[in-house]
Amino acid sequence: MAKTESASTRIVIEPHSQFDLSTHSRTTTVRSLAITTLSNNRTILYVGTHSGTLFSLSPNLNDTNASQNGTTETNSPSFLQKLSFLRSVSVSNSSVDEVLVLADLGKVLLLSDGSLFLVDSELANRAVRLGFSKGVSVVTRRRMRNNESEILGLGLDSNSNQRFLHRLGGLIVKDGESHNESCGGCVLALAIGRRLVIVEVVLGSKSGKSDKDVNSATLVVLKEIQCVDGVVSTMVWLDDSIVVGTANGYSLISCVSGQSSVIFSLPDVSRPPRLKLLYREWRVLLLVDNVGIIVDAQGQPVGGSLVFRNGLDSIGELSFYVVVVNDGKIELYNKKHGGCAQVLPFGGEGIGPCVVASEEDKGGKLVAVATATKVVCYQKLPSVEQIKDLLRKKNYKGAISLVEELDYEGEMSKDLLSFVHAQVGFLLLFDLHFEEAVDHFLLSETMQPSEVFPFIMRDPNRWSLLVPRNRYWGLHPPPAPLEDVVDDGLMTIQRASFLRKAGVETIVDNDLFLNPPNRADLLESAIKNISRYLEACREKKLMQSVSEGVDTLLMYLYRALNRVEDMERLASSTNWCIVEELEHMLEESGHLRTLAFLYASKGMSSKAVSIWRILARSYSSSLRKDLALETIIQDSGENLISGKAIAAAEASRILQESSDQDLILQHLGWVADISQVLAVKVLTSDKREIQLSPDEVVTSIDPQKVEILQRYLQWLIEDQDCFDSQLHTLYALSLAKSAIEAFEFEIISENIPSGNPERNFLTTLRNSIFQTPVRERLQIFLQSSDLYDPEEVLDLIEGSELWLEKAILYRRLGQETLVLQILALKLEDSEAAEQYCAEIGRPDAYMQLLEMYLDPQDGKDPMFTAAVRLLHNHGESLDPLQVLEKLSPDMPLQLASETLLRMFRARVHHHRQGQIVHNLSRAVDTDARLSRLDERSRNVQINDETLCDSCNARLGTKLFAMYPDDTVVCYKCYRRQGESVSVSGRNFKEDILIKPGWLVSR
pTM for this structure? Predict the structure, then answer.
């Protein structure tokens, strides 16, 4: 940043007008000053003199010739207008020590010769001495927060007055006047020796008639406080507390209770105490020699102290500043951080005591200082003009500090704050401080991104009309391309070097002057930081045209820095880049990847894929890796990460989302040449809205890429539930052909010794995208699908060794004998053969299988072991005589006898087993029924009194029977019913007795 000027060069106030007292009176000098703004917005200066005269002057603010650009740096009388003399009035024969303006009453209160005088604000009438007041050394008025008058606080009605009097603790009325007859006034605190007297100034005549045109007024004593330690020399009153200063120190006195507490004790040797009420913060400034201490209404110190350069004669307040005068100089100190903001001489050294007065208003703009014979009025420079002045001097830090103060105090709007940040940013930009410039741009909420467009692309361009024509106070040159800004800045530094050698002071940054930067480094810094600003702007909600400019020009800046990753990231994300603005640049610079990403993001899939195809032909394996693509390719089972693979992966991404069938089929071939997995992903993608035509896809697939076809057909059949019999047949034929080739390949590989390079080469050629062997996939499909043509498939594999596949197909065709022959004789799978016989479900199937085992044909030996297994497992299903007839005479007798014996035993065993099962079933049923009756009988109580339900005979210990429906009868009645008896599942004869408690069932 440019070197900050010293604080003394900051312009806060500038001389406005002056008044030479000697032109009106050669026998008197200035003693006191006061400034006020009347209700008609007229500003008046009151000047009290040592001769007892009061002058009123007007600064003529509406007819000012002072400079408004903040550059006035002279206080020569020839450059100042004169303060207009209005009137004068004689007060007394002594000096007017204090002037207190009672603006709300339209009066001016004067302290002269220990007495109080009242005069109207226009000085139209003579000054009137107020009542009993004598020996008054200091007078102050009760102040209220927000500059409200005590009239508003006390009220004019008697109730409000009584409440205030009650708080004060009583009322003292002198001279026989009644307070209730008053018609208005203000409250004052008077220091009389060691006493404080609180009085009310009441306007009007004693008769009660209001006569404010006549200076008739009375003082009504409200309270006296006797506890002041020392003679009061200064005093201020805020709220309900009075701060007084004596030679001993400062005290806080409650005007309600009268209690006093010490705030600060002064050393034995010190300057007289001084107090100043700071209206803006509503605090009090206590002076101890050249140190100012700020306290609150409770007398507690707040904030830091102000250290003044020298002693002072008088003190005032203006906005954020404390104004002090001493030895012909006026100094402004910032109340927040204590720094000296401005120093202005106005009277020369050795001129004697000076007086300063400021408007007692938070928004005051005037301050007046006076020497013995001269009064100079200073006007606060508007905040905007102060900022401009600081910026012209390249005091950017001071300007921002002032802006922050104004913002904190609520005196600067958000729009103006943003405007200043933008202005500072542009000035820093032209001073070659690009990072700080962009920092300020980002702090500006109203600055438009289009304002930096001219720094990137020369006018005219498609965004020229979007650039605001804002000159920003005309403090910086018009926008120009960054190359020109850098060149002009370097030329300014070079010119400043010559000027400094010639002894001419310049305001060029010392760092840049002592260490001239390199042009390339400056340009790189400029581009980086403007890129940073545009990147931040992308997060804002902008008009589409502005967003287009931001993204497109950001791509230009990335290209200038050769930030390839940022270019590709921007191009591949959602962006507003204008393709036609970038095509030529990216093609010429060779950034085809970026152009491909840009085409893809704009939906120009055909152009994007075409570029990837070009790149796939020219890429080398040394291309940088893309982590996302690396994951995709590794998941596909391919370990090679090359430029070609990356190009294919990017193209496949686009094709997977495209519904343009012609485009997909056009580029499917070269993608498949690089990666069959990616080609399959393209064909089987579910991201596209409209799926491809299977017939077109099948036709377009390279016949050499068999696995791609198979994987696509598998996806159609299994995932898409395709029921097209032609596709099912095509899939089966393709799998069958591949299975035959795989079988032949295995035979060839087995004949080559392990470790032979030729065998390794053949193994590499057989790398597959499938994890499941092709024969397994073929067998599963042949068993699961019902839509393919088995005869066509069978014709293809007829001469091959795919016997299991043949068996599946013959089974589909109902050729049971051929299936059994393949299972039993070719595959020698007895278990599968027997299972197939069980599925057929006819006994003759087992006999047919037995015949095949005993007479295999084709010169093959009988399979006696398999035959014995069949007889052992399923002999009961065979006719023994037929078995004997089929047995081969070559079968060993012992083996045959054992087989027959086992078969017969098995038949007997199965017969008896059936009987046992039948009887067991009946027994289980009977036991279950009896258990239910037994459970029921337990619930029937039989005793001597139990009667037969049939003949009513007493049962006693006689035999009885109970039916399942809980009916109990004697044995005789039961027998007469002509039913047989069954007890516990056994049948008994008639002469068998039934014992008591036995269960009898029908």
Answer: 0.72
